[in-house]
Amino acid sequence: MKESKGNGDEFLNEVASIGRTSHVNIATLKGICFEGSKRALIYELMPNGSLEKFIYKGNPSSSNHHLVFKTLYKIAIGIARGLEYLHRGCNTRILHFDIKPHNILLDENFCPKISDFGLAKICLREKSTISMVSARGTTGYIAPEVFCRSFGRISYKPDVYSYEMMVLEMVGGRKNIDINVDFTSEIYFPHWIYKRLELN
Predict the structure, then answer these.
(1) Is 98 a catalytic residue?
(2) Which residues, 6 or more positions from 32, have their beta carbon under 8 angstroms from its beta carbon?
C-alpha cells in the first residue's frame, strides 16, 4: 500500500470495472483495502508477472525468458478474447484505455490476464460512441481519435488500436517508441515497419 494522490477516482473506477467481470483472460480481484489515502487491490497470484519482461530484446529481465512464437500467439489470442469479453460479453461495455504489455499478467501456464482498470470507462452496450473530457492511456498506445478529436468519435476501437500496437511489440521484440535506436526514422516502430513494407 502507498499514499495515493487525488480523491481515489481511479481506484474506485478499477474496483467498479473489474468487480463486474469474470473471464479466464481478466485478472480476478480477490479483495481491496480502502483506508483514507491508503489503497490496495489484491489480485490472484500471477507467478510469471507482466508480459513486458518477456518480449523486449535487450531487456535485462527478459534475457533468460524468451518465449517461442507459439506461446506469443497463444498470449495474443487470449488478450483478444479478454478484450472481446469486455466489449461485448459484459452487461455493460468496459473500455480499458490502457492495453499495454505492463498491464497483461501471466499465470504459471502463460495464460494472459488483462489487469489495471484504473483508466477504464463503463458505458452502455447499445452506445456506439462515448464522450470523454480528456485523453486516457499511455503514450505510444493511445489511438489517434482519443488524442485528437478531429480524427473521429470514440468507440471501443481505441482498445483495438492499443492491442495492435502491443502485438507489434510482441512480434518485433521492441517498444513501439524507442529513443535508443540508431536512426531517428526508427524511433516510432510502426512508422519503421510501414517504410520497410513500402520499400518491398
Answers:
(1) yes
(2) 15, 39, 40, 41, 42
Residue range 99-144, pLDDT digits in tens: 999 999 999 999 999 998 888 888 766 665 565 555 566 777 777 6
For the chain, the structural domain boundaries read 47-199
> Of 161, 158, 189, which Cα lies nearest the Cα of 173?
189
End-to-end Cα, the chain, rounded Å: 52
Phi (first) and psi of residue 43, to 5 degrees:
-100, 170
Which entry of 9, 98, 107, 159 is annotated as an active-site residue? 98
**Residue closest to 24 by CA, chosen among 70, 71, 80, 62:** 80
Q: Would you state the CATH architecture of domain 47-199?
A: Orthogonal Bundle (1.10)
